[in-house]
Design goal:
- By secondary structure, this protein is mainly α.
- Strands 3-2-1-4 form a 4-stranded mixed β-sheet, with helices on both faces.
- It is 68% helix and 6% strand.
- α2 runs antiparallel to α7.
- Among the domains are: 88 residues, no CATH class; 99 residues, 3-Layer(aba) Sandwich (name from scop).
Length: 355
């Protein structure tokens, strides 16, 4: 059945199975936007100390040179090496921070899922036909459109900022270096702020789209839901047969206990209750077997073969059948009528023993 038949929402088991396979819902644009905003915030906080650090290091390096005549290729190389190291001291922590932020936000979306199945080599991906289909798929087309839109937005933001600052740019050659650097840094920061706003809006839209697409992809057909139910809950027909077998086995075990009974109370063929009472071990009579219709007749048949006393008491038989479970003592409300029956039974046994 094609995808057109997938009209049902995914079950929890389907979602869990997809998660185990690494097929989860996430928006990379949300991760990128949040990471960009945090990095921008960190940059704003750290730019001043980083600038002071680099400036002091450069001044110290230059001050170590007595004069321009002392500047050689070797000393210039040393200064450049120190500058690169100082720059790396700044860049590496920022880079690691960016990576950590990206991993953290991705983990929050995926609930830090790690699946080894994604690491296994999938030879199907090496199939050029399937690879070409993936390139031309709707998902790939949407990713391409998203990338074009993002690049276009960033380009328009930068273009708009530069266009509005044309006069300031033209005056840059006539201002001192410190002022020029400050203005350039401020302008770049303003551009980054504008870009982050658009990225946040785009990320919100992408999140909604990714959620919709994921829900659509994991939809199920009615048959798939039925098959899943059979796998998890079992085929109703099979379950019915199992229950029937269990009932038969329980009935067989119950019938083996009928010869242990002291009395059978029946109604007259619809219900039969087998009671056993062995004081002081038993505090009250115990129901060792019970049944109705054919089962009741079978209990009576076994009782007759084993010379067990059988008495008819319709309300008592029905009441015991409904109120007492197998191998459980009778409730106090039945003590009096059952005691009368047992007393009569003991009286009969005493009379027979005298004969």
């Amino acid at each position: 059945m094609g995808d057109s038949g997938k009209t049902e929402k995914a079950t929890q088991k389907k979602r869990d199975d997809e998660r185990k396979k690494g097929n989860i819902f996430q928006s990379r644009d949300v991760t990128n936007a949040l990471s960009f905003v945090l990095v921008l915030f960190a940059f704003k906080l750290l730019i001043s100390p980083f600038k002071d650090f680099l400036q002091s290091r450069i001044i110290n390096s230059i001050n170590r040179i007595p004069g321009t005549d002392s500047l050689t290729i070797r000393s210039a190389a040393v200064i450049m090496k120190e500058f690169v190291i100082d720059l790396m001291i700044i860049i590496v922590p920022i880079g690691l921070g960016c990576a950590l932020v990206a991993v953290t936000f991705t983990g929050i979306q995926t609930k830090f899922l790690f699946t080894a199945s994604k690491l296994k080599p999938q030879f199907s991906r090496m199939n050029p036909v399937k690879g070409f289909k993936r390139i031309l798929s709707l998902r790939s087309l949407m990713e391409l459109i998203k990338s074009i839109v993002k690049v276009t937005i960033i380009a328009f933001v930068i273009y708009g900022k530069i266009k509005n600052a044309t006069d300031e740019i033209l005056r840059l050659p006539y201002v001192n270096l410190q002022s020029a650097i400050t203005w350039i840094g401020s302008t770049i920061y303003d551009i980054a702020i504008s870009i982050s706003i658009y990225m946040a809006l785009f990320a919100a839209a992408d999140y909604a789209y990714q959620w919709w697409e994921y829900e659509k992809d994991i939809k199920m057909t009615k048959q798939e839901i039925k098959d899943e139910y059979k796998q998890t809950e079992g085929d109703p027909q099979v379950k019915g047969r199992i229950k029937e077998i269990q009932r038969k086995l329980a009935s067989m075990r119950m019938m083996k206990k009928v010869p242990e009974a002291d009395v059978i109370i029946k109604n007259p063929t619809h219900y039969a209750i087998a009671l056993k009472y062995k004081p002081p071990k038993d505090k009250a009579p115990i129901v060792v077997a019970k049944g109705k219709n054919l089962v009741a007749l079978k209990i009576i048949e076994i009782a007759e073969k084993n010379n067990i006393y059988i008495t008819e008491n319709r309300p008592l038989a029905r009441g015991l059948y409904d109120a007492v479970q197998l191998d459980k003592p009778i409730p106090a409300e039945f003590y009096k009528p059952v005691a009368d029956i047992l007393a009569y039974l003991y009286k009969l046994k005493k009379i027979k023993s005298k004969k």
